[in-house]
Write a structure and sequence with these properties.
alpha+beta, 6-stranded mixed β-sheet, 5-stranded mixed β-sheet, globular
Amino acid sequence: MCEHDFITLKYSKIELWFSTAENGSDFSLVEGAKVDILNKIVSDLRLNDLGYNIQIHSPLVFNYQGEIHQGDGLITGKKKVALGVFTADCAPVMLFDEKNAVISAVHSGWRGTAAGITKNAILKMKQEYGCRAEDIKMVIGPHIKSCCYEVSEELALKFLKDTTGENQIIYPGNKLSLENVIINDAISLGVIKDNIIELPYCTCCSSSTRFHSYRRDKENAGRQLSFIFIEA
C-alpha cells in the first residue's frame, strides 16, 4: 500500500479509504492490472474481497455477491469485504449503518445523481438489511465541487426542475453542486444532517499531483479509488 496515498476515516468497525494522486497513484487501469493491484490491497489489508462495478453512470445498485455488474452502486453486510468505486470528478459516496453492519459504495456523477442513485442505495439498505435512515451515516469524498463545475443551461435547468431541498444546487455561472443534490436526496429519505460528512476537496482545482480530474485533464486524467469495509 505504500505506493498509494489515501485519506482514511474510521468509525467503530467501519473503515473508509479515499485515494489521491500523490506518489503517482492512479487506478485508471486495464482489467488485468486492475485485478492485480486490487488483489494487493486485499492482501495488504487482510480483506476477503474488494468488489466493484463496471461503471456506466446509472442509478443501478447491487447487493454484492462476488459478481461484477454493470452499475454504479454496491451494498453488503459481509465483514472484510470492501466495496469500491473509481472517480475522476464524480462523487464517491460511502454509506454505512454501524448498528446493522451494512455498507454501500456509490459512484455518483451528474447522470447518476440526477437519477437518484444515492436514494436507491439507501432504499436498498432499508429493504434488504432492515436499516433505518436515522442510523445511516454518509461520507462524500473528493469530487468536482461547485467552484469548478460549470454545466450547460439545459442541465442546470434540469437539476433546478427535478431537485427539491433547501440547499442551493446551482450557483452563478450555472455551477452545479453535486454534493448538495446528494445531501438533499439523503435527507429526503430520513438521513440525519449531522450524520453527513463532506470531505473538503475539489478534484478540479486541486493540483494534478493531489487529485485526478477529468474536467481539468480530459483524456489524460487518472482515477481515484474509494472504498469502504467492515472490520471482522
